[in-house]
Design a protein that fits this description.
385 residues; Rossmann fold; 5-stranded parallel beta sheet; 18 helices
Length: 385
């Protein structure tokens, strides 16, 4: 939270656990969605370590590598950066006087540059991982295993990054007390007091539109300062509207990153509609890991909830009842398909023997095929969730 000169440390419990484990040789992969605080988490490790960890047999030092600029570098620039990283890595691995904690940020940017960061680079990381002088802390938006499997589907090296080689920390919404402390501190900063008095309404508005998401907490306070500084009268509705407008691109990115089933589930959660068992599981797992919902299964902020509610319109009430089978679970769809097949086996011979009308048989077959096709589509959808 450097933009606000904040002294509040987010994810303090995770920091404490990591600092303790790094002393005994653990390596970590820090995962989480964009804006959840992965880079801040890495930056906070050294100062938190210095303030809490006692003296060790060997001196600890920290080496920060940021791959965020890799997409905009030329091939030659990226290769020079890669060689510098490997050179430093070899030097730190051979340093017997120090233990170096390698803080590697935005690793997904390096994996995406297949023209520069080939398997030899990740091979080197895996080899030096066993050095007693090195500890890895790697931050990425997605699992290294998944990314390497996609980039190098036929390679064995990707297996080096499966757990438990790298212990995983998944950063989510910060605890309520940390979020509240951050808001209160922002209200108490001297340069804020000079321009506007901090009101209870300010705190409440920020809690509602930002929730416990670090990126939005910081942006909300900055937006509030920009809109109502200089003792301008505070308007909660205007603040909520303007904040949602300024975050619309970020909201769009978050929405488009979701699968269709996740979008439907999030929409229903935002509208407080009844969820199926599968949707409830999806809400707790995939949407929870994306930090889009809180522990009590609510959308993380009112501003994002407003946004989600505009993304999909429920069908008319009468049509909704007709389309209700499209919301069936996988088990319900399977039973329906088996029942339909059984009905086919019974009805077709009856039509032939009793009526003997070919047109009636054709009509039944057409209806059967259409219904069975819709059930198959629903089965595939639930299988992909």
């Amino acid at each position: 939270m450097s933009k606000l000169d904040s002294e509040i440390v987010f994810h303090k419990a995770e920091l404490a656990g990591v600092c303790q484990s790094l002393q005994v040789g653990r390596h970590y992969l820090v995962l989480g969605p964009l804006g959840i605080g992965k880079s801040t988490f890495l930056r906070n490790i050294e100062p938190y370590w210095r303030s809490t960890v006692t003296a060790q047999e060997k001196a600890f030092q920290f080496w920060h590598v940021d791959f965020s600029r890799q997409p905009v570098l030329t091939v030659d620039e990226a290769r020079r950066f890669r060689e510098e990283v490997l050179t430093d890595l070899r030097a730190y691995a051979r340093d017997e006087k120090h233990t170096t904690i390698c803080l590697m940020d935005h690793m997904e940017k390096a994996i995406a540059r297949e023209d520069v960061y080939d398997l030899s680079f990740f091979d080197a990381l895996a080899i030096y991982r066993d050095s007693p002088s090195l500890r890895y802390m790697i931050a990425s938006e997605r699992s290294l295993w998944d990314q390497l499997r996609e980039a190098y589907p036929d390679s064995e090296q990707r297996k080096l990054y499966k757990p438990p080689i790298l212990d995983t920390i998944i950063l989510g919404l910060v605890p309520t007390e940390e979020a509240d402390a951050f808001i209160v501190e922002a209200g108490g900063l001297s340069h804020w007091k000079a321009e506007m008095p901090w009101l209870v309404e300010h705190t409440q508005a920020i809690r509602e539109i930002a929730g416990r998401y670090p990126l939005f907490l910081e942006r909300a306070i900055e937006e509030l300062h920009g809109m109502f500084g200089g003792r301008r009268a505070f308007d909660a509705k205007e603040f909520r509207r303007r904040f949602a407008l300024s975050m619309s691109n970020r909201y769009d990115d978050m929405w488009e990153s979701l699968a269709e089933g996740e979008k439907t589930t999030l929409f229903k959660a935002a509208r407080e509609l009844t969820l199926s068992v599968e949707e409830q599981t999806m809400l707790e797992r995939s949407l929870g890991l994306r930090a889009l919902v809180t522990d009590d299964h609510k959308v993380f902020s009112l501003a994002f909830q407003d946004f989600v509610c505009t993304k999909q319109v429920l069908p008319p009430r009468g049509l909704r009842a007709i389309l209700r089978p499209l919301a069936w679970t996988r088990e319900q769809t399977t039973y329906a398909m088996l029942s339909l097949l059984l009905l086919y086996v019974i009805v077709v011979p009856v039509i032939r023997l009793v009526w003997g009308n070919p047109f009636l048989l054709i009509a039944f077959l057409v209806v059967f095929v259409l219904i069975f096709f819709c059930l198959m589509v629903r089965y595939w959808q639930t299988s992909a969730m």
